[in-house]
Amino acid sequence: MSLHVGLYHFLVVSAILFSLGIYAVISRKNAIMVLMGIELILNAANINFIAFARFGIMNLSGQVVAVFVIILAAAEAAVLLAIVLNIYQQLNTVNVDEVDKLKN
């Protein structure tokens, strides 16, 4: 029995990851969990880029874009983690709802 993994399988996994990422961004109040949701969304995009590079017409350009997305995600995580640490230092919380206190 041969199992053939096609484009449809990659798209389903990507849609599940994207949905979990959106759910994490919308439902969580903890800033670290929101950042993890954003990372899930970016990973879902990477799966799509790689899948279309393999099965579609993108050839190598999909893999190049995925590498750029990984670099962007690393830079984004570093900057946002620094922001979250600064917020924690100022307010002693990482609750996203309480960040509006910084306006005062």
Task: Give the CA-CA distance, first to last residue.
Answer: 66 Å
The major pleated sheet works out as: none
CATH topology: Helix Hairpins
What's the Cα radius of gyration? Answer: 17 Å
Assess the beta-strand content as a share of residues. under 5%
- List the domain count as a whole number: 1
Please give the CATH class. Mainly Alpha
Decide which structural class fits the backbone. Answer: mainly alpha
Order of helix and strand elements from N to C terminus:
HHH
pLDDT < 50 runs, ≥5 residues:
none
Task: Work out the helix count.
Answer: 3
Give me the CATH architecture, please: Orthogonal Bundle
Q: Count the E strands.
A: 0
Shape: elongated
* Average pLDDT level: 87
Overall helicity: over 70%
